[in-house]
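Page 47, continued from p. 46.
Same chain as before, 360 aa.
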Amino acid sequence: MVPSLTPLSRDFPASSFARGVPEIDLAGVLAIVRKQIALLDLDLSGLTVVVGATTGYQAVTATVAALANASRVVALTRISSRHPNLAAIADATLAFAKHAKVSERIEVTNRIDSRRWQDVDLVTYCLQVGPISRSLIELLPSHAVVSLMAEPWELRPDVVDFDACDEAGIKVAAPNLSHPAIDLLPEFARLCCILLDEAGVDQRTARIAIVCDTPCAPPLEHRLRESGARVGVFSHPVLLTDDAWDVIVVAMRPSDKPPMDINSLGRIARNSRQALLVQFSGGIDRSAASYFGLRVWPPKRPTRGQLALPLDVLGPGPLVRRLTGGLKAGEAAYRGAELGGNSVGFLVKAGFPTAGRERA
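Result:
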């Protein structure tokens, strides 16, 4: 049975899909933060930490670092189409800090003088700070640590100059999303199912192909099967079988070229023309999809390297676990703790897609 699906994106005004900034319960979010800091034993004592300043739940990052006893926290702002107002960004970031009574250790600024980077111990990768380029790395002291705040498969290939980090002796740490105190893979699956709901897919009756080369594949398959969907999982579009799929979920890692390219889309058009392509992560050649008359959801192309839905759709808990986990991985690397295996994080070297995880 073909699921109920929404019409083509051009039939909707773009504003229909706009999401407002969530109403923030400062006390509730900070209670979650304190619990996670204690659970991970996050201790940034004596460290100068650079994070991003933003709005929404992610604005809590600077406060997380300060509550973990960082001696100084620098929260960088960056004007963008999503965040055009620097004053609003500063207000959102400092609102958490003032409520937690740590604002005196947090500085919100739009730039760091080149000489002051020598005082930085831990720098987090985020849109406001990145990319972590060679020119930035050359300003850091050799003991500094870069925290990716995500597993490498989530990030665009060009966000960190790993070769420059290796040459400078600067460690790059990533959180282990499967660690019990972080446990984000099931949350990604839940987020993808919300995206399917928004696309009008009845998961109880749909034949769904998951095209996924990330660790999200098993939890997503499990969740969809529990909903009643008939599911097939493929690690690359070229492996997709010629079945008449109702929905094809694209959940690939970011890449320079869309893995769902004109050749793959041509095969889909021949065998599953009625299928809805749901772009959760990774790229789809939308021009080719339009040429073949294939439907794509969401209507607006996600920013490269970002999920189709932000994690804060699930509330503050998952995002706080990511933020504290990323900072803990950075702290562990800074203090020379053993990383890798089932620990809270791992070190990342140049060539990480093939080199795998390293031990500290």
